[in-house]
Design a protein that fits this description.
Elements: H1 2-36, H2 41-48
Helix pairs in contact: 1-2
Length: 50
């Protein structure tokens, strides 16, 4: 039961992944920026650009 749920979620995620990839990258960059306290300006601009 749980495995089927995970599998169906994986399929749904795969469908929309191309849409959210940029947003996920922005979030990761933002977390890295917060963790490190600094990052190159181009990356900082991408991370802070909503």
């Amino acid at each position: 039961m749980w495995d089927l749920k995970v599998f169906s979620w994986a399929k749904e995620i795969a469908k929309i992944q191309h849409i959210v990839t940029k947003d996920l990258l922005k979030r990761k960059l933002r977390k890295l920026a917060i963790a490190s306290g600094s990052m190159p300006k181009p990356l900082k601009a991408i991370a802070s650009n909503n």
